[in-house]
Amino acid sequence: MTRRGATGLVGILPIDKPAGMTSHDVVAAVRTATGEGRVGHAGTLDPMATGLLVVLIGAYTRLAPYLTSATKAYEATITFGSETDTDDAAGAIVRTSPVPPEVREPAYAISVLASCIGASSQLPPAYSALKVGGRTAYRAARAGAPIELEPREIDVYRADLASIDPGTDSWRVVFDVSKGTYVRALARDIGRMSGTAAHLSALRRILSGALTLANAHSLDEVVAAGEADALSALFADALTALDLRVVPSANANIFTGAALDAPVGDTLTEGQAVAVTFEGVLAGVYRFVGGRLVPAVVLPGGVST
Predict the structure, then answer these.
(1) CB 160 within 8 A of CB 173
(2) pLDDT band at 118; cut points 50, 70, 90
(3) What domain range includes position 113?
(4) pTM for the complete prediction?
């Protein structure tokens, strides 16, 4: 394997994260396989969860804010009858409750899920990576001194019932949610709304912005490709992944971070982010401010995959 420098490898890599690994574990595996130090991801998955983890490599780690804010979609299994301290199956049971018979009825499940759609305030799980006053919530909870977290505004765009398993008192649900939504907190709250207890027993991310699980590669495939210096063949198209308005530019000054004239007759809105290309290659992300394109992220010299 050829070891690379800090700017030797650049790309957006969709990975199908296996269960039992943290998102950081996956990032570390990619670092080891490629020798590239700058590796990050666009949206954490809990160790129990599987599915689409968007890994960013090299200069593309700077694109994280434009990828983490994307809508996420999940296949979730909600099991009724017990709550856990983590709100998922990885935690210890802290409360049990009889399961009302209507929980096993599709019409009832569909009604409850429909009430979840829209904007609302969600209390994050006590075991989360949120920080308050420099303290991380899950570390404080493990130490027996949980932090009092504030509710956060979230948006649930879709909550479709896929199936009910009466034998385990569980629902399989497809959720489309905004950035910052905890699906395990949705499971907890759905249990309470149903007059019982519930927790998230399985989770698989199937979409992150414009990327889907169909775009993802197994970690074994990624590691093998990295060790063979062939990882770029697995990269997603950066412009597709960003899903921003594309503005071509012939002005080489973009690599100096200079502001650009907006395209004549274009209908950009104030503050809108766009992907600027130079000779067909992503050169950076700019925002439309005061009639001009102002740089937010500049990729010096442009990068290609």
Answers:
(1) yes
(2) very high
(3) 72-208
(4) 0.91
